[in-house]
Amino acid sequence: MKHTLIAAMVGALLASGGAHAEKVKIEFWTMSMKPRFDAYFEDVVKRYEAQNPDVDVVWTDLPWDVIRSKFTAAVAAGQPPALANMNVQWAYDYAVSGAIQPIDALLGKDRGMYTAGALADVTWKGKTYAFPWYNSADIMAVNVTIFKKAGLDPNKPIRNLSEQLKMATQIRQKAGVAGLAPRLGRVESVFLGEGLPVLENGKAVFNSPKHVALLREFATAYKAGALLKDNLFAEDNFQVSIAAYNGGRLGILETTPTALTRVRDDAKDIYAVTLAQPVPPGATGVVKGGWLMDFVVPKGVDAKLLPQVGTFAKFLTNDANQLAFSKATGGTYPSVKQAALDPFFQDVPANAGAVENARAIGARNLENVRTLAILGIDDPAPLLRRLREETEAAVTGRKDPKAAMDAAVTFWNAQLKK
Amino acid sequence: MLKRILLNWTPRYTLLALVGLFTTFPFLWTLSTALGDGGNIYAFPPQMLPTEPTLAHVEEARRVIPLDRFFWNSVWISAWTVFGTLLISSLAGYALAVMKFRGSKWVFLAVLTTLILPSELNFIVNFITVTQLKLTNTHTGVVLPLLANAFGIFLLKQAFEEIPAEILDAARIDGAGEWQLFLRVALPLAMPSLAALGIFTLVATWNAYIWPAVVLQTPDEYPLAVGVLYLSGTFAAKTRVIAAGTVLTILPVLILFLLAQRYFMRGLDGAVK
Amino acid sequence: MDKNALTRDVRAYLFLAPALIVLFLFSFWPVGLGALLAFTRVDIFNLAGSQWVGLDNFRTLFDDPVFLGSIRNTLLYLLVVPLIQVAALALAVLVNTQLPAIRLFRTAFFVPVVTSVSVVGIMWGWMYNEDGMLNQVLAWLRLIDAPVGWLSDERFALFSVMFVTFWRGLGYYMVLYLAGLQAMPQEVEEAALLDGANRWQRFWRITVPMLRPTILLCTLLSTLAAMKAFEEVVVMTGGGPIGSTYTLAFYAYDMGFRAFDFSRALAASLVVSLIGFVLAWFNFRFFRPDSR
């Protein structure tokens, strides 16, 4: 009796295998989409299979905690999926280590359907490594009461960072509160946003006159009290800056449209006087606050299958499907041009609040949204910490900005050489 | 009488309770987060007693993901791993501790070495092996590599070594073969260590999430530890529901530990008294 | 006689066979390959294409101040071993009774072993925050004037992380010691009791010597665990502040799974292993059962 039971259990254990289909199989992995977007992906798969009866599309969703381990093991074992969802940083790491392949040939003339910023995010050394997918973008919330008190016109768009800093100074002088809460804890993305490089040919270059001049502007604003001092040099000052804005202690808040719901829900009085505006573009027209998600094609995907993979990837990220996905999430943006112009983003009722307006503004700015990440450093933590410390010394006036950046660059290059 | 009991026991229980609080506070917080509603979860100091206890988050977790299915997958994978580990490790541990044979030192050294050498690559190399054995997407493929447990062999070797030689000799003189000696004498005497190994293997297997996710292709086959990660999906994370999922994952192991404690008791008790 | 020896060997290897087969496939093979690949430029996506580079990876390692710092931190980390062993043994003796509800307490002490590391990270983060529970209690007791940066001050961060390792390991080793205590023949202790030895004497003269094998096992395991500790670092400090909590294992993890530099990761791991071998050897010298 005991023996037959064990035999039966062993049999059952061995039998739990999977079935195989005869058709061309395209498997794609997404990150942390289950269970909320089950319906969306099932619909996408069904529609594609209806158009392409010879293709069997398999959707696998993986929690973000495990997707990289699984992807690494799958590629190493020669059993990769056809497409996998990555963020920009991870895609870059895999591109450098040779685990994914360039997709320029697969993009072909459809390259033009994606926004320039999104393509630039996943293009390295002249080769594009991923199909852009959903994205995010920053907008600017201004407190109209504070602006009027300071004698500023809240409806006039701000053209650049210098102008924004001058306005912040005026807000401090006339309205008595801080004007701006820049992310100086991530000064490297401030540089990138202004079109100033951080690394060039594997060397730190952020002590150029332009970088130093920018820091001097921040130092002047800091001295005038224009910047919100809470957590100014912390890695993340989002929580304190939204708290300050909600408390009427900050004139301008740069954030994502979704984050504005916290102003709406937590501080009704401030929300009533909040106006959404586009963020001032950087010197090269870059818009801050992108966080692009994309699909990569692993090394080892059957070459005969590649054209089909490309077709499916472009289907997955085309205007209609990206638009539908934005509707499903309610908080993300597409990385394709046409979808961004859809009435879903642009038709704002006359009496709409700042949140709705912000979403429309963000969508209008999508073409140049960039994911501003420092790529290509083995061990960024100590470098970024040193940069943060030197920035603090420079902006607070404890050190000359030029000397501070020179010190940081020396430290970086010594570390990067290894 | 009562006074003496109180005097005797109070210090001991106070100590036990203090240590217990020290070891359980993260779990109590997770429990309170899972059962509580309203208020700021991350408030400081953390609220240990929920103001409005509710099972809503537990129900939501059950509604959002197929918890029952994940649970049974976990039970299945863990049961096989625990059973297999106990069997394989006790056989090997017994051979190393009790039987005299050529090469025993080398075998033991090899076992010990695997405990020490770098294991970063294991999951990648093992996945390649599992692929070649055509076991991907099967629970066998998950379980098999987990049975290679040098720690278990080491633990049981120590346990068998503690068995007084006289007891084994006496059984040998009574005409017991090696197999009977192992089954009838050694195993019962090593029960506390078997129980310890069993519970450790269970905890490790139950909580493992990277390896099962690497081997299994379809989420339907995932164990609980991987499945609950879906509760923290993009745009959908609700801390209280995640906490509920965490509690539901931990609880079965704790209950089993509570119940399994009678096996920690002296192996001889059953035989002698 | 010789034939007897042969049957004896065959029988022993039959007992060992299942273990050796799975160990060979899923431990010796990957672990051995890992040790070998430490001497190559690893191509993780094409292992066979890894290029032999001799000791290059180790040279790079020993040029890296972060790596050298992590050796120091790992050696410091070993301080946790004696503390955890003494405390776990004491705890095991404490719960090795039949008091009412003792099983509930044992379960409570086992909870940290079962708690997922991410929850551990959140909770101990709160304990250690500048305005966290620990500082509040210490300030209330007037032991400190200004909050201590348990995780943000490079002088304390490593010790704070080590304490979490202590906390997580307590119940684990308690269970092993409990198993050891339960396996001890009762007669010996009863005899000592009749001889009039007090509890303290019985503990030192009977319990500890009888527990030698378990103590060997636990110290060895806990030494290896301390050498390979990294999860606590990942969830609590990520190696900071100023690299002060980089342990060797965290360094290897960080190199392998964040930077995909498996060459350096495996080389670092091999250095951990070498230290591990030395320490294991010491452990065996100290707690060898036949030295009683």
- Biggest sheet descriptor of chain B: none
Structure summary, number of beta strands of chain C: 2
CATH third-level topology of the largest domain in chain B? MetI-like fold
Share of residues in strands of chain B: under 5%
The unreliable regions of chain B are 267-273
Indicate the mean pLDDT of chain C: 85
Q: pLDDT under 50 segments of chain C (min length 5)?
A: none
Report the count of strand segments of chain B.
Answer: 0
Listing every helix as H and every strand as E from the N terminus to the C terminus, the arrangement of chain C reads HEEHHHHHHHHHHHHH
Question: What would you say about this model in short?
Answer:
With 273 residues, chain B is mainly α. Helices cover 71% and strands 0% of the residues of chain B. In chain C, helix 3 (65-77) packs across helix 13 (248-258) and helix 9 (186-194) runs antiparallel to helix 10.
Please provide a written account of the structure.
- The complex is a heterotrimer of chains A (418), B (273) and C (292).
- Chain A is of the alpha+beta class and 418 residues long.
- Chain A has two domains: 171 residues, Periplasmic binding protein-like II (D-Maltodextrin-Binding Protein, domain 2, 3-Layer(aba) Sandwich); 190 residues, D-Maltodextrin-Binding Protein, domain 2 (3-Layer(aba) Sandwich), CATH 3.40.190.10.
- Helix content of chain A is 47%, strand content 12%.
- Chain A has 20 helices and twelve strands.
- In chain A, helix 8 runs parallel beside helix 10 and helix 19 packs antiparallel against helix 20.
- The longest helix of chain A has 16 residues.
- Chain B has two domains: 53 residues, no CATH class; 213 residues, MetI-like fold (Orthogonal Bundle).
- Helix content of chain B is 71%, strand content 0%.
- The radius of gyration of chain B is 23 Å and the shape is flat.
- The C terminus of chain B is likely disordered.
- The longest helix of chain C has 36 residues.
- The model of chain C has no long low-confidence stretch (mean pLDDT 85).
- Chains in contact: A-B, A-C, B-C.
- At the A-C interface, helix 3, helix 4 and helix 19 of A face helix 13 of C.
